Amino acid sequence: MRPVKFSVVLDWLKSEGFVAGDTALDAVPDFEIEGFASVDLAGPADASFWVGDTVKNETNANGFASSLLGKIHAGLLFVPRGLGATCSGNVPGVRCLVPVEHPYHAMVCFLEKFAVEPAGAPFVAQSARVHASAVVEGSVGENAVVGPGCVIMRGATLGAGCVLEANVTVYPNVVVGEGCVFQAGAVIGSRGFGFYEYGGVRRPVPHPAGVRIGRDCSFGANAVVAAGFITPTTIGDHCHFDSFVQIAHNCRLGNNIYMASQSAVAGSVIVEDDVEFAGGAKAAGHLTIGKGARIAAKAGVTKSVPAGRTVSGFPAEEISRWRRSMVRLRQMGEK
User: Fold this and answer.
1) 261-273: per-residue pLDDT in tens?
2) What is the pLDDT of residue 57?
3) Tell me: the pLDDT tens digits for 77-129?
4) Would you state the torsion angle of the CA atoms of residues 197, 203, 208, 212, taken in this order, to the nearest 10 degrees?
5) Separation of alpha carbons 298 and 225, rounded Å
6) For residues 150 and 283, what is the distance between their CA atoms, to the nearest angstrom?
7) Least confident of 51-60, 82-91, 278-287
8) Which of 75, 77, 67 shows the shortest CA–CA distance to 98?
């Protein structure tokens, strides 16, 4: 997003009825808001939100615990109305707390108003090869190859030596490192599948944070990586994904990850280094797959997997236990 003064944001908040016309926010010294991020990653020039004091479970699905508020360093933080005064002493790293009725909805509206698509003219390095039927509105690095029917949207950046084979779509705010290969039909940075309820209506969540991909990764035919909400979906170096792999919004993947065809991770999953997914394996959202874990074919992961563990079945469990269970089931079926 382009930098915006807090005074401009405050005028907008008043006009939209998020805050009253005359509040203590008028006395806040003006500053620039340069971006947005989740509450755990926000910096002093970022906007973020906190939904209130919730008990965190093992999946972190219930949000950011109040005991960690002292670690926040945001510029603007939307908080639930009525908590502004009580929270102010616990968040010294936040420049301005903005109490609102529905912090998540306020954050969505903020993004829709101020997180405009990136500007800038197309750039194609001289050594890059771009097919005549491709559409390039973003940036293409040295020695990259952009095949027929590919689309690189404005605000996307393709690193040196990357190859887009055919009909690959790269959305805005996607940054791809050097040497990555995308087979036909891959889609990188599409809007994530997210909705929230406000005023009795289910509303779509915007995903302007995009995608960040490291170097020397490969993506099979029709693989999809969805954009993040307020933090990018991230993939490290030397990761390889087969055809029809789905990486959902807000996921954070490490290095040396392998995912076979039709495997997928739902939103906000953390996948640590050296993890392998066999064909058709799936992981539910807001989980952590530990370093070096193995997910067997068609497994359904419903809770976090410790480092080095191999799991199978649905719901997924340690593979030796799953095998014993399968043997017992067969024995029962033969009686």
Assistant:
1) 999 999 999 999 9
2) 37
3) 999 887 766 666 678 889 999 999 999 999 999 999 998 777 778 999 999 99
4) 70
5) 20
6) 30
7) 51-60
8) 77
Residue 334 reports pLDDT greater than 90:
no
Give the residue extent of every domain in the chain: 4-114, 123-322
Kindly name the residue from 73, 102, 105, 249 that is annotated as catalytic: 249
Q: If you write DSSP's letter for every residue of 84-150 in order, what string do you get?
A: HHHHGGG-TT-SEEEEES-HHHHHHHHHHHH-PPP----EE-TT-EE-TT-EE-SEE-TT-EE-TT-
% of the chain residues with pLDDT over 70: 93
CATH code at 123-322? 2.160.10.10
Q: How high is the pLDDT of residue 131?
A: 98
How many residues would you count in the chain? 335
Cβ pair 289, 305 in contact under 8 A: yes
pLDDT averaged over the chain?
92
Question: Among residues 115, 153, 151, which one has the least CA distance to residue 133?
Answer: 151
Query: Residue 305: which residues within 8 A CB-CB, separation 6 or more?
Result: 287, 288, 289, 290, 293, 295, 311, 316
Q: Which CATH architecture has domain 4-114?
A: 3-Layer(aba) Sandwich (3.40)
Helix, coil or strand: residue 177: coil
Fold matches, 4-114 and 123-322: no
Question: Which DSSP letter does residue 305 get?
Answer: B
Query: How would you classify residue 312: left for phi > 0, otherwise alpha for psi between -120 and 50, otherwise beta?
Result: beta
Average pLDDT over residues 265-286: 97
The pTM of this model reads 0.91
Annotation says 286 is catalytic = no
> What is the rounded CA–CA span in Å between residue 174 and residue 156?
5
User: What is 188-251 written as a DSSP string?
Assistant: EEEPP--EEEETTEEEEPP-TTBEEE-SS-EE-TT-EEEPBSSS-EEE-SS-EE-TT-EE-TT-
